Recover the amino acids of this structure.
C-alpha cells in the first residue's frame, strides 16, 4: 500500500563504485522527483521528470542520471561515487491536480 | 532559493496550540502557500496549502494575512508526535512545466513539543 517506495533503505558502498536507487509510485502521478538531503539537513531538488521532460538542477554532477522505464518508476543511477555523495536521497511524485508531493521514506547512502 | 522566512526553532507545550509563522513578502498572485513537515528520519509530509482564504483540515489550520505577505500554521493541540521540522513554501499550484512549479525547501522551523 506504500504510495512511494524506495529501495534500498540503506546503502553503504566504496568510493568509485556505481550504484542505483529505485523508486516506484502507485499513485498514478505523472511527475517524479529526486531530492538530496545532506548532513546539514538541507533538502535540495536534483531532478524532476514529467513524461519525456527531464529538468535537471544545474548543480547536480553528471555522474547522477535518472532513468525512467515507465511513468511509475524513476531510478537514480550514480557513477563513480564520491565521499560527498553521502546523504539521504528522497524520491517524490505529484500530478497536476494533486495537492502536494508525496515523498518516499528515503535512502541513506554512505560512501566510504 | 526559498522565498520564505521562518524562525529556526520553536518550542510548544504538549496539548497547547503551536503557531508557526512564515513571511513571504514577495509572493506572486498565482502562488500558493504550502506547508510540509519532516519528522526525524522520514520523508517530508504534506500538511496544508492555501491561496488567500484561511484553510483547515484534519491536521492543521492555515491563516493567511489579507496582503498575503505572511501566514501562520496552527496545530491546535500539539502532541509529542508533532515534533518535526516545518517548511513553509510558496509555489504555483499547478506544475506549469520547467522548474517553476518545483517544491523548493528552505531551512524550516524545528518545532519541539515538550511534555
Amino acid at each position: 500500500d506504500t504510495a512511494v517506495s524506495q529501495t534500498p533503505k540503506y546503502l553503504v558502498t566504496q568510493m568509485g563504485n556505481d550504484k542505483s536507487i529505485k523508486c516506484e509510485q502507485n499513485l498514478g502521478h505523472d511527475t517524479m522527483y529526486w531530492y538530496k538531503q545532506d548532513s546539514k539537513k538541507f533538502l535540495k531538488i536534483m531532478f524532476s521528470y514529467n513524461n519525456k521532460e527531464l529538468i535537471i538542477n544545474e548543480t547536480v554532477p553528471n555522474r547522477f542520471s535518472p532513468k525512467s522505464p515507465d511513468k511509475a518508476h524513476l531510478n537514480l543511477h550514480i557513477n563513480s561515487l564520491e565521499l560527498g555523495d553521502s546523504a539521504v536521497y528522497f524520491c517524490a511524485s505529484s500530478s497536476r491536480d494533486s495537492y502536494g508531493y508525496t515523498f518516499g521514506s528515503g535512502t541513506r547512502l554512505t560512501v566510504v | 532559493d526559498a522565498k520564505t522566512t521562518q524562525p529556526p526553532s520553536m518550542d510548544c507545550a504538549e496539548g497547547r496550540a503551536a503557531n508557526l509563522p512564515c513571511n513571504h513578502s514577495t509572493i506572486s498572485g498565482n502562488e500558493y502557500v504550502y506547508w510540509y513537515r519532516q519528522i526525524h528520519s522520514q520523508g517530508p509530509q504534506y500538511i496544508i496549502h492555501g491561496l488567500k482564504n484561511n484553510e483547515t483540515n484534519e491536521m492543521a489550520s492555515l491563516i493567511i494575512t489579507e496582503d498575503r505577505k505572511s501566514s501562520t500554521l496552527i496545530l491546535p493541540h500539539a502532541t509529542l508526535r508533532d515534533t518535526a521540522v516545518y517548511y513553509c513554501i510558496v509555489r504555483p499550484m499547478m506544475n506549469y512545466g520547467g522548474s517553476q512549479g518545483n517544491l523548493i525547501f528552505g531551512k524550516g522551523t524545528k518545532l519541539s513539543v515538550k511534555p
About this structure: Chain A has no helices and eleven strands. Chain A has a mean pLDDT of 91. The two ends of chain A are 34 Å apart (CA to CA).
